[in-house]
Amino acid sequence: KWYRLAALGFASLEMFEQVSLMTLDSLQKCGLPRVSDLGRTSSDYIAAILELSSLVVRRQHRLLLHCDLLYHLVPDGWRFRRACDTVHRFTAAVVQQRRQALSHLGREAWLKSKQGKTVDFIDVLLLAKDEDGQELSDEDIAAETDTFMFEGHDTTASGLSWVLYNLARHPSYQERCREEIKDLLQYKELEEIEWEDLSQMPFCTMCIKESLRLHPPVTAVSRRCTEDIKMHDGRILPKGNICLISIYGTHHNPAVWPEPQVYNPLRFDPENSQNRPPLAFMPFSAGPRNCIGQNFAMAEMKVVLALTLLRFAVRLDESRPVQRKPELILRSENGLWLHLEQPGPAMRASPPHHAPKAHAAPSS
């Protein structure tokens, strides 16, 4: 798609929209059953997710709108319900198709047909039973699927968009990443990233991590204290309190990160990371309730970054300044626009005849 747009002269593209469509498509291919007619509604789904993210944050800052009854009477409440309906219809279509297939074949035949093949996330939910032998309700499955689809594409899209932005700001780092990928793939007939390749991309990985530090997709998480917690100054956080933990603030703490506003991938060189506190860097949260999909997200970011830089150079669109916009996910106020440039002769790669595949299976 980007080759075609670049050929037509669309040199400047808004990254969040473009990358979100790609990560949603990747999620459907890797963890969910493919639904043939969802392509037409993907853009509607992305638009609804963006609107919900904005509406949720706006509601948090307006005390009167915390009352559900009042919220449903105002325009924001109408838009919220409409966007929720769009999201729920999208995920319901995914679940319904697989449920029909499962009902048609029967549980045992379905399990037999999946032997030796990847079991989708939806399969796990539809076949799951609790300790009493009861299957998950439609509401349970819908809730899990909505969470999986939102968190499985939107956060990754933010992380990828910001790393492309940071490498556009620092061409020397971008070129070093590109050379690393060219060296990795130089003896391969096809430009494909295999699972074992993911550990052979040290500098690209450092660039991704530094971008996640500087621009974490999720800027804060909340946790309820399960016991009294004594702080270093002697004060007590009482059991039952809900605490807001600022990931963005932690990642920009000058006591831990010297010159925190500077993009410096070498912070994550193994030698420079030895004495760093373990919770100084937590883009995927931490503890028992951390991100269940962080391995999948990192694998996807490495693959996408590698194949993108192999085929394109990304440059800043100086006419569109970038201003951070923290919502549920960290975005940019007026989008994040970058120029795509065809690679020069020394780094030119042929347009793919099919979607590049990465044999990096989803992992939690």
Automatic annotation (TrEMBL):
Indicate the principal place this protein occupies in or around the cell: endoplasmic reticulum
The protein's name: Cytochrome P450 family 4 subfamily F member 22
Q: Which GO terms describe its cellular component?
A: endoplasmic reticulum membrane
Species of origin: Pelodiscus sinensis
GO BP annotations listed: ceramide biosynthetic process
Example of a GO MF term:
heme binding
Pfam families in the record: p450
> Mind listing the UniProt keywords for this protein, alphabetically?
Endoplasmic reticulum, Heme, Iron, Membrane, Metal-binding, Monooxygenase, Oxidoreductase
